[in-house]
Amino acid sequence: MSKTVFCSVIFPANLPYFQDFIKSLKNQSDTNFTLLLFNDGVADLEKYLRDSTLNYRIENCQGTIPETRSQIFGYLKKAAFSKIIFGDTDDYFSENRVEECKKLLNDFDVVANDLILVANDKTILSELFWKNRKEIKQPISLESIKTFNFLGLGNTAVNQKILPNEIQFNSNLIAIDWYLFSVILQSPVSVVFSSNSHVFYRQHEANIIGRKKLTFADFRRGVDVKLNHYCTLALLYPDFKELANQIKEFKANLSEEKFNSIQKKQKVENPFWWEEI
Fold this sequence. Notes:
Layout: E1 4-10, H1 18-26, E2 34-39, E3 56-60, H2 65-78, E4 83-86, E5 92-93, H3 97-104, E6 110-118, E7 124-128, E8 156-159, H4 176-184, E9 191-202, H5 216-234, H6 241-252, H7 256-265
Parallel strand pairs: 1-2, 1-4, 2-3, 6-9
Antiparallel strand pairs: 4-8, 5-9, 6-7, 6-8
Helix pairs in contact: 5-6
């Protein structure tokens, strides 16, 4: 059995995109991996895989997103895999993603891939989205993701040994991936960002980055996500209390007029997740 696993969650809303996801994995330059699908509510999932040549395994999960992610990481920590590549089932991948991630995991603990933004119909909307950002060319540490994030469960790969022995995601947690990597990077792990392989990151209603116009409602929701993130981390790591207090004060004084003023003064090019907030 391969020691490499490609880990994803499938749920009914992602079924329209699932065949693109499967096809891109079948076309990988290195197919020596097991596809591990966590099934969150899809009936007769195997019928979507009958024509697939992939070696796959299905595990069921259920509950809220924090509950299912707690189940998933509990499983991964005990499983007989050494390298774990993550991907979302509404995205698809460059043909060398598995090969590149496996190679880099020989030297690093965490690998992050660049994104190419695509429309619902797979029309390409951007070139490599973060390739020219200086932040991903510097040594990557916890400081690198304190105020924004580029380490997601759709664009990373990790060595199993660095996963926390136990991790339970708070029931009201929203940015699961940001929280997870903030916990992982509390320890001295090595992280590399690669634009040599990439994720085709589909832009649809539930999955948007770098939109041309950020609305006040989007901004206000982002403030809530950041406040939730810092408050949850502060329960374990007191260093995050100051950030939580800053966001609380900012939220208390937030108005649409202030938002419009901020938008006029700053424009983030090719933003990371939550960077525009």
